[in-house]
Fold this protein.
Amino acid sequence: MIATAAGEKADPLKRLRGFAHDLCFKGMHGNRLIYNTCWEDPALDRKVMRLHKRSRIAMITSAGCNALDYLLDDPAELHAIDMNSRQNAVLQLKIVLIQLGLYEELYALFGKGVYPRFSELYKQVRDHLPEYARAFWKNKAHYFWGGRLKGSFYFHGAAGDVAWLTRSLLYGNRRIRKHLQDLLAAENLTEQKAIYDQLEPEVWNWACRTLISSPLVMAMIGVPRPQARLIEQNYPGAMLGFVKDKLRHVFTEVELRSNYFWRVYLTGSYTPECCPNYLKPEHFDALQDRVDRIQLHTGSFAAFLTKNRRPFTHYVLLDHQDWMAYHNYPALEEEWRLILKHSRPGTHILLRSAGLTAEFLPGWLEGKVRWHPGMTAALHLQDRVGTYGSFHFAEVL
């Protein structure tokens, strides 16, 4: 179980910051779209999950990009679950556009992030959307207007606001802007490293340091206090050291030519060559054939499993158990009991954490699942996102 940070109870300032972080996180996640794109690398997921035609997947929705990516491996069915109905609304719109064969509109909205005629498109797709998705998208034409202020769908929502603010701070400096443009155009790791060596001292100015230490910013990008505490307690250099090291890894050890995760937040759009698989035209027919296999559910993962009676072959838990481990450990244990109840020997379970280990998980899982730390440690080094502390994969015994 995650311990209370040393000295927090005795330090009024830490207590106040913790309260502010929790309040911001609760306000953001209860009232807003948080993630406008998935922030987990599905290329790693598919390597360990080994999906097949009989796969039944239960996963956290996020923005739905990875659910659509997994469909390319032809699973039998996929259930996307999220506490935030706005996240499901994003995936639901993508599903409807695919079902209606509207590839150009799909790419304009979620590839370029700009589509000034969204109001007309909404009228075309409205009757194909469930009520919660209609309610969300009804007044969101401004997300796709473009223009000089925000200019992209990817600069909307809580995480998008942070991306926009950070990009504005960075691009406001001519030297940094030039370095970032050169970085995105680099053709190999040698070039990337040389450019980043020049960029790094410029980036770590007071403004960026302030952003990283802000409870509001952490909440906006979906980092609850327990995750921040995991990093503060376990990583050399605490949060600042964690972010600096992760950025250096992403920009000097992983090729940016295919790194659509960072490209979209640095530029506001993808390119045809550097984008999630669901946006590539060569995959559109397969997605049309299979997209009806996705079912969306709004609510907790445990509530979904309680209602479901059939076993699953794959679980993708993202990092939500970091939060549960601190705020509601009995709920974390109950979720694992339900996962095991709805599993069979060989079921695959994938999760991520802000921590460097998964020591917060229930000890009684030993003997019930087999972890593969060697495999995931090697794959974690290939992660194009680079913002998690660790990556974990288990098989049910």
Summary: DSSP finds 20 helices and seven strands in the chain. Residues 84 and 101 are 27 Å apart (CA to CA).
